[in-house]
Write a structure and sequence with these properties.
The chain has about 325 residues and is mainly α. The chain has one domain (about 45-310). It contains 13 helices and no strands. Helix 3 crosses helix 7 (about 135-170), helix 5 runs parallel beside helix 8 and helix 7 (about 135-170) runs antiparallel to helix 8 (about 185-210).
Length: about 325
């Protein structure tokens, strides 16, 4: 028979084995092993911060994410090997391929983390433990989002450092005509990729908050990322006349309408700056950042609203 205890809450470790054992004990029944709410969230502690910490703990131990990290390291290795295909500009080619690899890896990181830490918790109903605690549901969604952003920043820094080492050691013994830019231009480009992934994370979080299909956030997130990254190139191609092809130009009204719905994530790709020393226009750069941040805020707000209204059976 169940004992009368404080509401079971697993804010600090919804995905932790320790938390599940603490809540249910070895028998799997809620009983005397269930800690009090005060043990999980001391008085005065911000619940959003508690969800961020639990996100980091669960995310950094995820086996699926470890596989994505290996993929990112392999992509950096490919960047190093690709330098041999350009005897005149080995460092530029290595940097170009590596930035593309980091861009793909960060998106995969974002989608797998949201799927693992939000989508799967909703499907398995482990999220119900967090909802029993007297805090707003929005704290859970915002905490998970900020936690994923923190892990993405760590992943971007690690992969960025690995890529720069690959660029430095590529094409050794050959001095190309112009040097690739290091320091500020390079790390600002990596930061732009992180902002790109942050927008994709916000979209995946929103889909996870309303989806009843397990893999829908991952599938739609990939489609959203692909559409946002290619939208700018397609719109520019149509604006230039599509080489006079009337059949292609018929798509112009559709693409113009899509631009009001999807963000142009290509505006956050500033690789020409470290590769060729061509700095992006400051106004365009700021506009891209503001648009991306605004879009992410809207999506997170929608996720919070949807999560608050969702009925969990």
């Amino acid at each position: 028979m169940l004992e009368s205890v404080a509401p079971p809450v697993s804010i600090r470790g919804l995905s932790d084995v320790w938390t599940r054992q603490a809540l249910f004990g070895e028998s799997g029944q809620l009983g005397r092993n269930c800690p009090s709410a005060v043990e999980f969230l001391p008085d005065g502690e911000n619940p959003v911060r508690a969800f961020i910490v639990s996100t980091w703990r669960a995310g950094l131990r995820s086996r699926g994410i470890q596989a994505v990290l290996v993929l990112g390291m392999l992509l950096v290795a490919v960047a190093f090997l690709s330098a041999s295909f350009s005897p005149r500009q080995p460092k530029t080619v290595a940097l170009d391929v590596g930035i593309s690899g980091i861009r793909i890896s960060l998106v995969l990181f974002a989608l797998f983390w949201v799927q693992e830490l939000v989508g799967n918790e909703i499907q398995r109903r482990t999220v119900l433990f967090a909802l029993t605690y007297p805090v707003a549901r929005g704290h859970y969604a915002v905490g998970r989002y900020l936690g994923v952003l923190g892990m993405l920043a760590l992943a971007a820094a690690l992969l960025g450092a690995l890529l720069w080492l690959a660029v430095l050691y590529s094409g050794r013994g050959y001095q190309q005509g112009f040097a690739v830019a290091s320091g500020g231009p390079y790390w600002l480009t990596i930061a732009g990729l992180w902002v790109d992934a942050a927008v994709v994370t916000a979209f995946a979080l929103w889909i996870a908050s309303l989806s009843t299909v397990p893999m829908l956030p991952l599938a739609l997130g990939l489609a959203f990322a692909a559409g946002g990254k290619s939208l700018g190139a397609v719109a520019e191609y149509l604006a230039l006349g599509a080489e006079g092809d009337p059949d292609v130009m018929r798509l112009a009204p559709i693409v113009n309408a899509i631009q009001w719905i999807l963000p142009d994530l290509s505006r956050l790709d500033w690789r020409a700056w470290p590769m060729y020393g061509v700095a992006p226009d400051a106004t365009a750069m700021a506009g891209g950042l503001v648009a991306a941040a605004s879009y992410a805020v809207v999506l997170v707000t929608l996720a919070v609203i949807t999560f608050n209204r969702r009925e969990f059976q």
